[in-house]
Amino acid sequence: MNGKWNDCFLGLKIIQFLIELHLEVDSIKMDEEPERAKRWEGGYERTWEILKEDESGSLKATVEEILFQAKRKRVFESHGQVRLGMMRHLYVVIDTSRTMEDQDLKPNRLTSTLKLVEYFVEEYFDQNPISQVGIITTKNKRAEKLTDLAGNPKKHIDALKKAKDSTCGGEPSLYNSLSLAMQTLKHMPGHSSREVLIIFSSLTTCDPANIYELVKTLKALKIRVSVIGLSAEVRVCTVLTRETGGSYHVILDESHFRELLMFHVKPPPATSSSECSLIRMGFPQHTIASLSDQDAKPSFSQAHLDSTSGGPGLSMGGYFCPQCQAKYTELPVECKVCGLTLVSAPHLARSFHHLFPLEAFQESPLLLHHTERFCEACQGELKDKSVFTCPSCNSVFCVECDLFIHDTLHCCPSCIHSRSAP
Amino acid sequence: MSAEDEVSLLVIVVDVNPIWWGQQANREPQFTLSKCLDAVMVMGNSHLVMTRTNKLAIIASHCQESHFLYPCKLWKSGDGHGDDNASTSGDGKYELLSVANDFIAEEIKNLMSRTEVKGNQTDTLLAGSLAKALCCILSIKMHTGQEMKSRILVVKAAEDCALQYMNFMNVIFAAQKQSILIDACVLDSDSGLLQQACDITGGLYLKIPQKIALAQYLLWVFLPDSDQRSQLVLPPPVHVDYRAACFCHRNLIEIGYVCSVCLSIFCNFSPICTTCETAFKIPLPQVVKSKKKKLKPSTHTCK
């Protein structure tokens, strides 16, 4: 008796999930066909027919299938041999207008957005270590910069934490926030990719001038604007993203919001008009000096001279710029004295997996593989319905190892053994 | 105190490169592969004995494959069989330890006798063993519901292989993301890759001055876990050279030029990138047109 109730409850959850999946597919197609018929104009889709009961009346098999699909939900498109924009200058515009006090995202839209943008900033610097991010907020028909374009995640995260206490009010202004972002982005060098990501919750915008002129200017400056909507689709955003080559999505719930943000962490394909150039960079050595060294002298780092936060500024070791010997405590940083970009070799190595992406593994049912009973990577038994085979070395992996290999590891453990990779 | 609930997993990756160990047997007959594995077994047993919930895994890194010495696949699939076949040790040793030691000895004997070194592949496949270790840690983490702290200890004998650089860096970043420490105990020559790994993940790097005392170094330096290490006086961190090597000469450079498309590093400016063959835009000096000055008729005369 209890089992039936559990199944019904699960069934309802599954129907909800399937409806969300259908809506998501529709929203992805949105910007490709601007004059497509709306969802209520189409016919009915019978989503409940996907659920099938087996002989004993339980939905267990269908539930397992759907959970398995959920694990594989991420659609990763490997770009293959397409050139990617590695050095990115991204502005995140956060709408802090009256509509952000709405409580459909818990506890309210603003707190939830700020938390997710913090997570986004950390992941962004993890995948794009030589890129920069700046944050702009817009409310009361004005826009102001929260943080400048910088390559250090700490500053942005501190500013986002402080912004949680700020009040929301008024209407946002798309024109003002875009022109503020444009003022800095137009001076950025040609080889970097210039992007703006707008998190837009209001349905209105208050602009001092014609925004379509601004869209033309943005297109000429090769700035790519993407929007994540929190309420509903707004036509001006559709036009803006279509003209500049960005993407527009509207969220369904918090987990969908997180997924859409993570979609922007990967470097986008570079436009054909971006220039390629050789960038001069410095690779400073890290000196660790201790008090017992006779030559060691404590010194201030350049970052501490400007910051107002407390704490001892003197430190013994650090990174010294090879051109002007200015000291810094963290990398990557742009030297304030001589303008040289300072990075370390592991920072560049973090981006290599974008250049040599791993192929997707082939899925096949477990029944075809009689001989292998263990996953090659984790040595665990193969219990799932299907297994994944690497096309180059034909080794068999389980579902969790496949996800881990493609998301985090970026190299096949067996291919490393069979051939020596570059 | 949740010390009872916390599971700590130690994965030991032992470099069993047959060529290096063969040469080692000629150089120093008193320290051979079997002595090294004895020390590793002592380390593994000590880790299992520290807390009841500790777990252990040992991987042997060969030049053709990486093999799990412990836990054994066959043992995992049928739990009952393992207990029946294991001979109870006569000296009253804790069953778990004696079974583990027997398995390790058995597996390493099989591994060394069945593999033949062919061709010029004489480098230890360390990156592959570390990748398998990470997947194994992840799967064990998923099967135990409790929070688990894990670390990897690498006992390295042979030299680095420069061809594995990219895979190695991928593995290091994956370990850093999962908060897994990588410690390194180096027997012979310094390894730049392992120094970077220990620095990035927060582990310890140590090059042993006397190989015979391996067991002592392992127990004193590498047995305590990360929480306890802050209370101990341990060998200081080494200076890691993070300079990049240029792609044309393989020299370490301090200032270089980086291609914006493929991120290859060059020491001198060149108009074409050799890796991705993109032609670069050469920044030309800007020509400033001089403005024609209108001369006003002046009336002063030179004296």
TrEMBL record, chain A:
Residues 89-231 form the VWFA domain. InterPro entries: C1-like_sf (IPR046349), Ssl1-like (IPR007198), TFIIH_C1-like_dom (IPR004595), TFIIH_SSL1/p44 (IPR012170), VWF_A (IPR002035), vWFA_dom_sf (IPR036465), Znf_C2H2_type (IPR013087), Znf_RING/FYVE/PHD (IPR013083). GO terms for molecular function: zinc ion binding. GO terms for biological process: DNA-templated transcription; nucleotide-excision repair; regulation of transcription by RNA polymerase II. GO terms for cellular component: transcription factor TFIIH core complex; transcription factor TFIIH holo complex. Its main location: nucleus. Keywords: DNA damage, DNA repair, Metal-binding, Nucleus, Transcription, Transcription regulation, Zinc, Zinc-finger. It is found in: Nucleus. Gene3D superfamilies: von Willebrand factor, type A domain, Zinc/RING finger domain, C3HC4 (zinc finger). A zinc finger (C4-type) spans 321-338. Belongs to the GTF2H2 family. This is General transcription factor IIH subunit. It comes from Oncorhynchus mykiss (Rainbow trout).
TrEMBL record, chain B:
It comes from Oncorhynchus mykiss (Rainbow trout). The keyword DNA-binding does not apply. InterPro entries: TFIIH_Tfb4/GTF2H3, vWFA_dom_sf. GO terms for molecular function: zinc ion binding. It is found in: Nucleus. The keyword DNA repair applies. One of its GO terms (biological process) is regulation of DNA-templated transcription. One of its GO terms (cellular component) is transcription factor TFIIH holo complex. It comes from the Eukaryota. Belongs to the TFB4 family. This is General transcription factor IIH subunit 3.
